[in-house]
């Protein structure tokens, strides 16, 4: 009976650790917004975009602006 409890405890701990890593797997294959901004030739700025630049999106999870000429 003790062996069954130990096995159940071990499996419970194993699956609880795997459940936290599921969020990491959903992000695989997706590029960050910073990467997409730089790939388009832009820069990420927390301050307003420089003169003659336009806002083309966001960076760092929406905290900064992607500025492109």
From TrEMBL:
Signal peptide coordinates: 1-21
One annotated Gene Ontology cellular component of this protein: extracellular space
UniProt domain Beta-defensin-like: residue ranges: 33-67
One Pfam family cited in the UniProt record for this chain: Defensin_beta
Segments forming a coiled coil: none
GO molecular function, one term: CCR6 chemokine receptor binding
Highest taxon in the source lineage: Eukaryota
Key words of the record: Antibiotic, Antimicrobial, Defensin, Disulfide bond, Secreted, Signal
Family matches, as InterPro entries: Defensin_beta-like
Example GO biological process: defense response to Gram-negative bacterium
Role summary: Has bactericidal activity. May act as a ligand for C-C chemokine receptor CCR6. Positively regulates the sperm motility and bactericidal activity in a CCR6-dependent manner. Binds to CCR6 and triggers Ca2+ mobilization in the sperm which is important for its motility.
Family as reported in the entry's similarity comment: Belongs to the beta-defensin family.
Subunit organization: Monomer. Homodimer.
UniProt protein name: Beta-defensin 1
């Amino acid at each position: 009976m003790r062996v069954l409890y130990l096995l159940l405890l071990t499996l419970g701990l194993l699956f609880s650790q795997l459940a936290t890593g599921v969020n990491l797997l959903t992000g695989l294959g997706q590029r960050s917004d910073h990467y997409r901004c730089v790939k388009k030739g832009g820069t990420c700025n927390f301050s307003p975009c420089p003169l003659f630049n336009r806002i083309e999106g966001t960076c760092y999870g929406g905290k900064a602006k992607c500025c492109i000429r």
